[in-house]
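The record is passed on directly below:
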Amino acid sequence: MSLAIVVTDRCTKNLKQCLQLLQPDLAIQIWPEIYNPDEVEYAVLWKQPKGILAEFKNLKAVTSLGAGTDFITNDAGLPSNIPVHRIVTPFLKQQMAQYILAYVLSDYRELKAYKTQQQNNVWCVNELPQKTVGFLGLGSIGKFVADKFLDLGFDTIAYTHHSEVENIECFHGEIGLKHVMQTSDYIVCLLPLTAKTEGILNKKHLAYCKKRPLLIHVGRGEQLIESDLIDALDKGLIKNAVIDVFAIEPLPENHLFWNRKDISITPHNSARSDDKQTAQEIHKWLLTQSKQPS
């Protein structure tokens, strides 16, 4: 069995070592040193170079290194009969929850305001009103994060395509999206990238916001119309935005987001799986694939 690890944004040598411990007989090639593409039967991918999948003539299946698969399914070089898997580890979900909770709780508990009070020798207790966290998208990661907010006493709602989710009120369609945008104090975008979700954070939908929410965007960069966000911030429709994903990464040095005090930028690091758990999931996937009829 032969595997190619084609990951363009990080070093994967430790991932290879973890995999070899689990499966010593596995032949592993790491991009960019793909010395024998004809041997590759399975591939672990993350933002692979264009055209590389066409080089794997004996490819049987692929998996994303993380939760997203749009960069795989949108690759013209992917044969139509190749199954696509994705990896969502417990560590990945925990990191995403930590990231989103950190920004929401910092805002909700007014940590910056209390620091300012300390600097001015002010002793004043601010009341904590009930707040609503609205999720755009509620897959396995979104549900995990939403449950954490439920445990902390937040009202939690979601905009989803169709499905109903235990303990969380879900809304669908344009009317449902409008309701979530209108009633949420915090909006978390965790949608997958599809034809329907591309550009969904646009002027029309941001105008639905009535509570001047904090927007946390950890879905896909192509879902946000960046100029529309700046317009919404300037008009006071959005209080602040936390953006972890961008249409162009790394973010260009001359990008307008860099100097906005009402936008917090992180370098697409909201959640990444650790190598050990990822290797375990890849190993399980390969064992499943080996049992498939040839």
Summary: The chain has two domains: 2-89+273-290, 90-265.
